[in-house]
Amino acid sequence: MKWELDGQTADVERALAGGAEQPAGWFRFYFADQRWEWSEQVQRMHGYEPGSVTPTTELVLSHKHPDDRGHVAATIDQIVNTRQAFGTRHRIIDTAGNVREVVVVSDRLFDDDGDVIGTQGFYIDVSPAPRQANEDMVSARLAEISENRAGIEQAKGMLMLVYGIGESAAFELLKWLSQQANIKLRPLAEQIAEDFRNAGLPLDNRPAFDHLILTAHQRVAQTDGS
Question: What are the phi and psi torsion angles at 144 (to 5°)?
Answer without folding.
Answer: -75, -15
